[in-house]
């Protein structure tokens, strides 16, 4: 170093300083890299800790969900058949075929899949049969409504042809092939078994109500097939000669007349639906009873008309049969279900002012001879006349019922032919009257339950079934 010149010393110091500076820089960069790696590790650990904390926070809810599901799993898998039930599956299919009316030609078990470590084992069956389109749909619906889970992944149809020009298209027989699948559940499958939950029984007991609520929500949706509903078979050519409809309809029932009948019935149903809506909306109790009574009477009349049309095979044109089903039969069924059991609340009954009004109306109607009006008023109100002992309205209701009985007797009396042809009045003796060509005296029996009570200058009084009825002389 002593032999170096001044310039060489400066250069050596510069080189040494540069090396030291470069080394320091590289050391700093290396340290910063290490720091970044550690920060990344810390961030990853923080994220994992946060996820773990989140999972830890969810443990109570997850345990709750698992307990509820575990306690109800037996309800969920009830739709899956036991292994022993599979042996009866052929009998079940035959039963469905009989109910649907199809002709089952073959039933072949397919290949089993699953099993072993799988919780579910799949079984499939292939079948071939023949029947109408509506029989096929009813057969399919039997599986859909079956208490066990059955799926239908594939089916095929070979369209048939009508056997003659006059045969109804809905009676055409087709060929079908069908594959159905079902599953069994193996609760011991899966290897490790269920996760252990600490204090399971105590936690289960605390969740008892929630377990039952969840169980109550378990249901299997079903669809009830309602038949052809006047729809045509889409696999049959619908083009039929127009005159064949008139021929099948019977003498004098042309297409125009069929349409008129359907329209008339559809309008009546619409009218009944409107009456029912009025009954639902009104707050006047007597009006509600009267409207419901009219609706029930109208339903009976339309049902009688439908039965007659069906018996006489009047509506034969398929589009009109479809309208009859959609616009008359189905709305009628819905309306019948709505009004079934409809009537007054017997715990409430008719208010006192309305009761007194009914009583006054019936008394005036009977005095004036308007017997039918008195009976009709009672029929409207009769379901609202049920009162318990101690209710002030009970006495009025009994008087109304008594007037109704008298009205019925008077109505029966009015049907008896009594032609008063002459009267002989004797002041101090027994008067005589000529009725229907025969002579009777006061106290005589005219026929069963009918007696001559008294003869006056203006009228003749009769005693009929305990009721005194006066009949004016002509």
Count of the separate structural domains? 4
* Arithmetic mean of pLDDT: 77
Beta-strand residue fraction = 15-25%
State the fourth-level CATH superfamily of the largest domain: Ribosomal protein S6/Translation elongation factor EF1B
Q: First CA to last CA: what distance?
A: 169 Å
Name the CATH architecture of the largest domain. 2-Layer Sandwich
CATH topology of the largest domain: Alpha-Beta Plaits
Estimate percent helicity: 40-55%
Alpha-beta content class: alpha+beta
Task: Specify the number of helices.
Answer: 12
Sheet with most strands = 5 strands, antiparallel
Number of beta-strand segments = 12
Q: List unreliable stretches of 5+ residues.
A: 245-252, 343-347
Topology record:
Layout: H1 6-76, H2 89-100, E1 103-109, E2 113-114, E3 120-131, H3 133-144, E4 151-158, E5 174-185, H4 200-206, H5 208-216, H6 242-249, H7 255-281, H8 285-312, H9 318-339, H10 352-367, H11 371-381, H12 393-414, E6 420-424, E7 432-435, E8 438-441, E9 445-447, E10 450-455, E11 459-464, E12 467-472
Antiparallel strand pairs: 1-3, 2-3, 3-5, 4-5, 6-7, 7-8, 9-10, 10-11, 11-12
Helix pairs in contact: 1-5, 2-3, 7-8, 7-9, 8-9, 10-11, 10-12, 11-12
């Amino acid at each position: 170093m002593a032999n170096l010149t001044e310039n060489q010393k400066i250069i050596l110091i510069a080189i040494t300083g540069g090396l030291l500076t470069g080394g320091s820089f590289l050391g700093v960069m290396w340290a910063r890299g290490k720091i970044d790696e550690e920060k990344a590790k810390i961030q990853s650990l923080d994220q994992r800790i946060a996820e773990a904390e989140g999972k830890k926070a969810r443990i109570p809810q997850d345990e709750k969900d698992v307990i509820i599901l575990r306690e109800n799993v037996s309800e969920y898998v009830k739709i899956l058949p036991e292994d022993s039930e599979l042996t009866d599956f052929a009998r079940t299919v035959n039963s469905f075929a009989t109910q649907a009316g199809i002709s089952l030609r073959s039933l072949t078990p397919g290949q089993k899949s699953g099993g072993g470590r799988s919780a579910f084992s799949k079984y499939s069956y292939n079948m071939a049969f023949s029947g109408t389109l509506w029989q096929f749909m009813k057969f399919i619906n039997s599986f859909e409504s079956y208490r066990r889970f059955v799926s239908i992944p594939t089916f095929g149809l070979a369209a048939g042809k009508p056997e003659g020009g006059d045969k109804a298209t809905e009676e055409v027989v087709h060929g079908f092939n069908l594959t159905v699948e079902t599953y069994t559940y193996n609760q011991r499958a899966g290897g490790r078994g269920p996760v252990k939950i600490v204090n399971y029984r105590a936690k289960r007991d605390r969740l008892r109500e929630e377990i039952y609520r969840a169980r109550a929500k378990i249901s299997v949706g079903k669809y009830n097939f309602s038949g052809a509903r006047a729809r045509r078979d889409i696999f049959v050519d619908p083009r039929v000669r127009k005159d064949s409809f008139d021929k099948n309809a019977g003498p004098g029932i042309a297409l125009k007349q069929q349409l008129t009948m359907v329209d008339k019935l559809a309008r009546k149903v619409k009218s009944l639906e409107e009456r029912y809506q009025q009954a639902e909306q009104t707050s006047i109790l007597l009006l509600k009873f009267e409207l419901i009574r009219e609706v029930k009477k109208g339903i009976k009349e339309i049902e009688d008309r439908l039965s007659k049309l069906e018996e006489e095979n009047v509506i034969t044109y398929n589009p009109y049969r479809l309208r009859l089903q959609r616009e008359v039969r189905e709305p009628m069924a819905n309306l019948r279900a709505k009004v079934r059991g409809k009537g007054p609340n017997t715990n409430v009954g008719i208010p006192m002012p309305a009761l007194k009004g009914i009583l006054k109306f019936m008394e005036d109607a009977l005095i004036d001879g308007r017997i039918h009006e008195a009976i009709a008023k009672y029929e409207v109100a009769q379901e609202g006349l049920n009162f318990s002992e101690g209710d002030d309205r009970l006495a009025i209701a009994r008087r109304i019922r008594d007037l109704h009985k008298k009205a019925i007797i008077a109505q029966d009396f009015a049907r008896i032919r009594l032609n008063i042809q002459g009267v002989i009045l004797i002041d101090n003796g027994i008067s005589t009257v000529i009725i229907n060509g025969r002579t009777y005296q006061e106290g005589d029996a005219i026929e069963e339950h009918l007696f001559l009570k008294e003869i006056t200058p203006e009228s003749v009084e009769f005693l009929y079934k305990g009721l005194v009825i006066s009949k004016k002389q002509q």
